[in-house]
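Working notes for the structural subgroup meeting. M.R. asked for a predicted model of this chain before we commit to crystallization trials. I am recording the input and output together here so anyone reviewing the notebook later can reproduce the run.

Input as submitted:
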Amino acid sequence: MKLRVAAEGDDLLFDEYEVIYEDLRDVISEFISSYTHPEYFKSVYIHNGVEKSITRKAALTGLMSEICEKIYARTPVINNEAINKNELTGAASTSRNKIIAGLLRNTLEENLGLTGTGQEVSIMRSTLIRKNVLITEAGGLTRINLITGDDNLDYMLGVISGFIQDAKRKGIRDFGELYHELMSPEGGIGIRKSLIPIYLAAVLHEYKQEAVIVGNMGQEPLNVDTLLQIEAEPSLFRLQYLDWDPEKEEFINELEEIFNEYVIEAEKAINSYDYVVSAMKRWYMALPKYSKERVSEARAKRYRSLIKLLKQNIGSYDLFFVKLPREFGMDAFNSSLADNIKAAKKYYDSILSDLTQKLIEEVKEIYATGIGRTIQKRSSLTSVIKDWCDSLNPAVFEQLFDNGADRCIGFFREATNDEKNICDSVSKARNRLKA
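Returned structure, recorded in token form:
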């Protein structure tokens, strides 16, 4: 083939190669046919050390079916040639991804939200609905059913569930082992590779809070992309099992309430608790630059650790149940961690307002005109500024100063009751005077 391609442009040489290619193809086809056509009487068929008398193609096909039925006795039947392959077309892959995404949502929609007559609907019906894996009950609740009544399918779903339960007992399992059991002759299932992500997603939906997928770079999100990466290189990924309990549920709910302003509802439907980490990172990004970069006081050292962890690419499991408890001095996770995180958020949220209040008091102290400290504290910044302006010679307001102080004095004269605005203007004026 390479020679034919290299000869393109040279018609004479190409035709010569074409003749040789056709001759070789005929030789190879004839050689293969001698094995696949018993009626040619060119082959002897031996199975388990016993010579079989096979003279018709139907007998050969029957023997092969018998062998497959013995070796792959647990193979579930999936009647859809678009998906029942080891390698999918681009269109079929896109359709499958829509099904996987629907299965990984926290709340399942009827028919996974798919409508119409597209290929994804056909694949979904063949793999899930007709197989009773995805069922909608009389009340309209759509759920995953792992006991379908199809013995072979139930066995395969049991193998996947057992893999997850085994991770609970052993602490971690390699996805390469699962794929080997599902596809190899030793496992007796022999399912096509492209079907595995669909049924893996269906089972993982039932363990979304407990299942933690770990790759070479740490925890991976439970989404379509991760399952496709596992399909490509199963041995590069492992499954950890998190013992989910009411305490962890309460912890996540408390964090959701603390960072409620930054929670996106659409993300809640997609994953179990990754959306809380995303909300915390949005909160951090929304902090003023001064709050982010301020060197923390000694008492707030642990709060600074929270910020450092949020800046890193850490999975939700490691962040909530491993690293944050350690940073806050806990031997192991407990739900009181939420109180520490709440205190850290309050600390960072108040940095700028505390600074503003401090500036207000300092400006009041600078411009107070002979009043006592007690009265000064009770007085507003606006009244202190206006009293100071009233104490000046009116001619001062008509003067121009080389350093631009006249702009500051002019602003003071027009000061409103907005103390924060006064502080902002004083800070800007100070920077101009300093320049």
